[in-house]
Amino acid sequence: MLKKLFRLIKFIWFHPLNQNNRLAAVWRMMSFQISSRIIKAPIILPFVNGTHLITSQGMRAGTGDWYCGLREYEDMSFLLHTLQSGDLFVDVGANIGSYSILAGTCKGVNVLAFEPIPSTFSYLQKNIKLNLLDNQVIAMNIGLADQKSTMHFSQNLDANNHVILNNEKNHPTIEIDVERIDDVLDKKCPTMIKIDVEGYETQVLEGAKKLIDNPTLIAVIIELNGSGKRYGKDDNVIHQLLISKGFESFQYDPFKYKLKSLKGKFNKLTNTLYLRNLDEIQTRISKKNAFILATGQKI
Question: Which CATH architecture describes the domain 73-285?
C-alpha cells in the first residue's frame, strides 16, 4: 500500500503539467483519496473545457487526469491539437472515456468508443451522457480481435483488464463478444485511432487491414510496452507493419506544438504516435487550438 502511494506521489510530483504547482496536485490526490473512502460512491471530477468524468477509487485513468490535468499529456494534447470538424476518432480500449470525452470536446468530431468490460462500459456510458455527447460519441460494449468470436477477459484489473488465455489463471473472467474492426466500421474510416488493449494490439490490427490501408487514417496512438508477450506477440511486428504502411514514429511536445521524430524506433514505456501525411498534420497543429484543463491551465 505504501509503495503504491509513493509511486503515485512520485508520478504526480514529476508530471510536467504539475511543475508550477506540485503541492496543489498532491492536495488534489489526497483530497480525492480521503473523500472517496468516506463517500464510498462514484465522484464527479472536472476535466477539460468544462467537461467532467464520473470516477471511483482505483480508476487510474479518470483520477490521473484530475491529479495532473491530462494524465497522458503528450498524446492527449496531440489529439486536442489535431482533430477538427468532420473527423472520426476511434477509441479502442476506451475504459471510462478519457480519450473519447476529449475528442468529443473538439467541435464537429464524431467518436466511436469500444470498451468490452460491462462494469467499465457503464461508466463510459454515464460519462457520455453527463457531458451531453450522446449524439457525438457512440459506445460499443464489445472487444476487437482478428475474427468474430467470444473471448474471456479479466474484469477486476481496472485499466489493465485484458484478454485471458487458458494458461492464465487467478483472475475472475467474463465472456465477451469480439469482432473485427473492419467489419464494424464497414465503409467508415477514422482520421485518428487510439489502441490500448493491454497486449492484444497485434490481433486488433490483424482485424483492421482495410482501416490501415485507408489514407484517411493519418494518426495511430498505440501502446507497445511488451504486454503482447503474454500472447506470443512481438511489438516489433506492429512497428514494422505501421512503418510499411507509410507511418513514421513520433512523440509530441504540446508546449511547443512540435513533433519529434523517434527516428525509426518506438516508445517501450508509453504510447507511440504513428503518423503519415505529415503536411496535413503540421497544418492542423499550427492552428494552436487551446483547451482549458480543470487545473486552470491552457494547453
Answer: 3-Layer(aba) Sandwich (3.40)
Q: Cβ atoms within 10 A of the Cβ of 249, count?
A: 22
The CA distance from 219 to 299, in Å, is: 20
Beta bridge partners, 140, equal: 114
pLDDT value at 168 more than 70 = no
Task: Using the Cα atoms of residue 107, residue 110, residue 115 and residue 118 in order, give the sign of their dihedral.
Answer: positive
C-alpha cell at 169: 489463471
Q: What 3-state DSSP class applies to 168?
A: coil
| Helices 278-285 and 73-82, packing angle to 10 deg | 90
| CB-facing half-sphere around the CA of 187: CA atoms within 13 A | 0
Residue 262 near residue 239 (C-beta atoms within 8 A): no
Is the pLDDT score of 72 beyond 90?
A: yes
Asked whether residue 21 carries a pLDDT value surpassing 70, the answer given is yes
Q: Which of 203, 210, 256 is nearest to 231 (CA)?
A: 203
Q: What percent of the chain has pLDDT over 90?
A: 83
Looking only at the bridges linking them, the beta strands covering 219-223 and 192-195 are: parallel
Helix ranges (DSSP H) in 83-208:
98-104, 118-130, 181-185, 201-206
Rounded CA-CA distance 46/171 in Å is 33
| Residue 46 bridge partners (DSSP) | 52
Element (H, E) at 14: helix 2-14
> Residue 64: enclosing H or E segment and its boundaries?
helix 60-68
Report which of 297, 296, 289 is spatially closest to residue 106, judged by C-alpha positions.
289
Contacts of 166 (CB under 8 A, 6+ apart): none
